[in-house]
Amino acid sequence: MTLVQWFIFFLIIQVVHFLGTWKLYERAGRKRWEAAIPVYNAIVLMKIIDRPTWWTILLFVPVVNLIMFPVVWVETLRAFGKKSEMDTTLGIVTLGFYIYYINYTQEVTYIPNKNAVKTENTVSALLFALVVATLVHTYFIQPFTIPSSSLEKSLLIGDFLFVSKFHYGARTPMTTVAAPMVHDSLPLVKTKSYSTFPQLPSFRFPGIQKIQRNDIVVFNWPMDTVYQFFDRSGRRAEKPIDKKSNYVKRCVGIPGDSLSIKDGIVFINGKESILPERAKPQFMHMVYAKNGVNMELIKKTGSTEFSRKYIVKPTSQEQLNAIQPYVTSFTQNKDNSLTVVTYAQGLPSTVTTNIGLYAQELYDTKADVNLTLKGAEELRNSKAYDSIVRVILPKDAKNTDCFPHTKDWSIDNYGPIYIPEAGKTVALTKETLPFYEYAITEYEHNDLKVSGDEIRINGQITKSYTFKQDYYWMMGDNRHRSEDSRYWGYVPADHIVGKPIFIWMSLDQDVPWSKAIDKIRWERLFTTVSGEGEPVSYFKYFLIALLGYFGYNFYKKRQAKKKA
User: Fold this and answer.
1) Phi, psi at residue 508, to the nearest 5°?
2) How far is residue 107's CA from residue 81's CA, in Å, rounded to a whole number?
């Protein structure tokens, strides 16, 4: 919607409000015209319903206002004696138009200072609690779950994070009509949680810091949600920016940087990028052993992204049920034994021993596993394997999977590539245009046409372009198992969501819920995402503080009883 359309829409809302409430304003001792003046009418209404004047601001905060409107409808009804559950229900389900009925057909009496009776405000209190939660979720802190292994070892699948929106500056929502505190779909029913109409222009509040190289960042995936990872079909699910899928990666390049990758190592402005101590990049390795690759030793290095095979000889359904949570697939052999495939955890010996199941692990002479460079060196020193070779993908003229899809680059040998900066100008030629075309048209909303060597932007022939916003380069630490900027290019500044700051829960996806104690990664609870050294869990300090709080309250109550 244009600004003119928004202004007309705003005036219509004011007319609707005036027609439905002017008599109620008069019954509250106010003037009829006070119901007609935009913004001022909301301030007056707050006085009528005995609520703070600053609530008026919440009526104009996108998403939050969708909950505030029902709060105000209910409070208005209660201010004129309509306190029953039926009145409350009608006020909400009719989208406030029940107030029209009260305004024109009912002889109601205004009740000043209605909030002196606290029991009358249960519904409004619950709705306002939802308002506060939505305000925090939208502008301050948002929970986030790690869905993939692209930052494995730094952030794990099953980590539950708090993401700060105020570090880089919170964005105002573009999508004005949306369910509170959910992203693009409703839980359980999995249907769209928002309406694409109307859309608001968005701006970002000032942040307390700028994105630095190697920060871990949550952002809206620029290429929209595809139907599966590494989808090259070009299919897209069109969404507003703030409803595009949330991704989390490491920002390896900031605006103005020149980035290149040589044999898997990132270089920024010609110098090797030094990752923070907590970052543990992983690379694919081929592990060879003529006597078979022992996967248990690989697991001890911290690697978790590989599968294991076993021959099992079950004699009962009970045995099959016991190993089912660990098995990803199986095939039946001619002798009625089974070849089962498991996650990296394998079949725990405690399980197979307890149920009396024969299980023998199969060792292949070659295995491809994800390892940190330190982990690979540990395996080489163990002498248990013949050789361990890091996979390095060379440049390939036949492969155009990597952005901008016109070069022979690979994910291990890439660039150099310039990361656009707001206000900076780049030359446009047939050679450079593929790098910037998507940003110019999709992210900065220009009309671009190419005819031979002639490039037109918004109808004007041009040989250069000046960017309107900053861009970033995001990559996963799991170098060979991350769909990131190497595949789809730059991340615009208006797609930045926030900074992960805290892990409050972590669940091991390879452990079944029947072993709930083992499923929780206790050492990761209440750990910070950034910082130097190994992460330290503050969970025990939280428990101590919690026990201290309840103990102090218990002591105070006992003392109060003694005095009584």
Assistant:
1) -80, 115
2) 10
Shared domain for 491 and 451, answered yes or no, is no
Q: What is the largest CA-CA distance in the chain?
A: 93
Q: Which residue is associated with the tokens 């110019």?
A: 440
Per-residue pLDDT reduced to its tens digit, 443-491: 999 999 999 889 999 999 999 999 999 999 999 999 998 999 999 999 9
- Choosing from 114, 153, 249, 499, the catalytic residue is 249
Which single residue is written with the structure tokens 């690989």?
298
> Catalytic: 249?
yes
In a domain, 357, yes or no: yes
Domain that holds residue 200: 120-180+194-256+474-533
Catalytic pick from 82, 124, 149, 150? 150
d(CA 354, CA 418): 59
Which residues are registered as beta bridge partners of 270?
none
Q: Is 150 known to be catalytic?
A: yes
Check the CA dihedral 379-383-386-387 and report its sign. Answer: positive
pLDDT of amino acid 188: 79
In-domain check, residue 401: no
Helices 40-48 and 64-79: crossing angle in degrees, nearest 10, is 50
- Number of domains composing the chain: 4
Task: Specify which residues 511 forms β-bridges with.
Answer: none
pTM, to two decimals: 0.83
Strand 246-253 to strand 216-220: parallel, antiparallel, or no bridges (unpaired)?
antiparallel
Strands (E), 184-289: 194-199, 216-220, 246-253, 258-262, 265-268, 271-272, 282-288
Q: How confident is the model at residue 76 (pLDDT cuts 50, 70, 90)?
A: very high
Residue for token digits 């070892």?
Answer: 153
